Automatic annotation (TrEMBL):
Topology in the lipid bilayer: Peripheral membrane protein
Keyword Lyase: no
Keyword Membrane tagged: yes
Short name of any one Pfam family annotated for the protein: p450
Cofactor(s) recorded in Swiss-Prot or TrEMBL: heme
Localization, UniProt: Endoplasmic reticulum membrane; Microsome membrane
Family indicated by similarity: Belongs to the cytochrome P450 family.
Alphabetized PANTHER family for the sequence: CYTOCHROME P450 508A4-RELATED, CYTOCHROME P450-RELATED
A GO molecular-function annotation: oxidoreductase activity, acting on paired donors, with incorporation or reduction of molecular oxygen, reduced flavin or flavoprotein as one donor, and incorporation of one atom of oxygen
Residues making up the signal peptide according to the UniProt record: none
GO biological process, one term: organic acid metabolic process
Name this protein carries in UniProt: Cytochrome P450 2B4-like
Species of origin: Clarias magur (Asian catfish)
Amino acid sequence: MQYGDLCCVYVGKRPMIVLNNVEMAKEALVQNGTVFSGRPHVPLIEWVTKGYGIVAVTYGHAWKQQRRFALHTLRNFGLGKKSVEERVAEEARCLITEMLKHEGKALDPMYPIMNAVSNIICSIIFGDRFDNEDKRFAKLLEILNENIRLSGSAVGLVFNLVPFIRHFPGPQQKILQNANALTGFIREVMEDHKKTLDSENLRDFIDAYLVEISKTVQYGDLCCVYVGRRPLIILNNIKMVKEAFVQNGIVFSGRPYIPVIDWVTNGYGILAVTYGHAWKQQRRFALHTLRNFGLGKKSVEERVAEEARCLITEMLKHE
């Protein structure tokens, strides 16, 4: 049985588009990469990350800013250059040394290789590698693996179908506990970096991020408040509001994810849905059609005037 190059399947209530053709996949993900850069809303990831990050968050203005900063910073630290090759070579030597300790005896290579790959990332993010005997590093890798395993199990599937179970005890609480432990570790590293930060001599990705934060923090015309766990940006300046919603209207056209609206509308509509390709198509069609029916022309004025007369007549009935 064959369903063609393009088909749609439902996972619960969520429609998924399947591309069964290499050329079609290339057209969608390479030629139109920006259009298809969005990520579906995954309740489990949203719950754990609180909407922050790059890899699994919804495509939008914040995502573009994070990605632009990450690529720029990683290039400065040698992404695609010999400086990263040197770190990989160093880690490869450490991996070989670790394996030679077993003197030909059988071993499970998964953990040494995983440690080596993780250390390459850590050397860029944290500025240093961790020793294989470091208990804290081993614990971090353990909880990461556990979260990956739990997220891909029945627990993750059920959570994404019924997010309400986050209020009940169960394996899903372990996922959040592990994520909080990882966040706590990163916070500790960031606090240590703040104490020795030198903006003229950046050591790693965290240093660069801290400097960038210091440049953008402002509590005057622009500030951020939290409603529960949801961050809200407040613009207290007319010029800034005009710049955001008029000069950069498309960039700021997104809407926050609101579970009750998504539940009622099934993700369809214009006013309250997340900005994306479907939203742009709907908006373009709506504006084009409404203009054809007189939006901004005298024909609409006549309808408004007629309705105003009916309103006055209705009010006069009450004397």
